[in-house]
Amino acid sequence: MAGDVGFFGPDSVTWKLHQEPILGLGGLRSLYLQALHPRAVAGVSQNSTFRTDMWGRLARTSDYVVTVIYGSTAEAEQASARLRRLHARLSAVDPRTGESFRVDDPDLLRWVHVAEVESFLTTALRAGVRLSAAEIDTYYTEQLRAAALVGLDPATVPATAAEVDDYYTAMRPELGLTRDGAEAAFFLTVPPVPETWGSRPLRLGLTLGPPRWAYLGLASTAIGLLPPWARKMYGTPGWPTTDLAAGLSARGLRALLGSVLAVLPARYRVSPARQAALARAGLA
């Protein structure tokens, strides 16, 4: 695999953007946004173990994204083939209509894809990562490769910032907070805390301690970074002051992460997947 930089590479905006640790917050934002699609969240609720293994599911999702971004061509293709085979076997029932639908329905895959890449990009920009308008559009265009890997026709996927805005406008009448969406958002906001976090148990299975409060801060920032129309669907304010506060919080978090990484040994500053990709590119 020497020299194989996969579907993106060191000159891509994708590699430039995904070296930012703050994108983890973008991933959380995307989950809140995805949960506003009634069928998308029903598909997860009826086919996933997120209620009993939330952290494992998030880890597997993160591993897939990292493989697509930094893996070799073969690694990314193998990971996406496994995902497509899994999705092809799954179906769910729309709780509003009783209609059965396939989890790999292109409309659902497109929503998940757009919500994810837009969340990564928006979170980075709000946290202070500088990208030109051309680089923003290039990122969306590059991510058409990721869309194709999950089985989408790239021609049907928004490929610029303007196209993403138009897509959200067209999708808004289909979105809303269902019971599945509310439960998913609750789990994202108050997830079960692993025992290794060392928090003391309270009633209702909740926990309290520094890790919990830190995570609640992350979750509230992720919600604050949602578009105003999405926040209103969750019953939270769509005020401009919320946007300002969330942006300041994201910038502060990015600065904190940068300060922590700066004092770590060099081998810990870059993720193993990125290190391996740089090595294949001869840039380690």
UniProtKB/TrEMBL annotation:
This is Uncharacterized protein (DUF2236 family). It comes from the Bacteria. The lineage of its organism: Bacteria, Bacillati, Actinomycetota, Actinomycetes, Micromonosporales. InterPro entries: MPAB/Lcp_cat_dom. Residues 15-256 form the ER-bound oxygenase mpaB/mpaB'/Rubber oxygenase catalytic domain. GO terms for molecular function: oxidoreductase activity.
